[in-house]
Amino acid sequence: MSKYLDRARELRATIEPHHNCAQAVLAPFAERMGMTANYFGDAVKSATGQSPQALIQQRMIALAKERLSTTQLSVKEIAYSLGYEYPQYFVRLFRQQTGQTPTQYRQGN
Question: Do 78 and 46 share a structural domain?
Answer without folding.
Answer: no
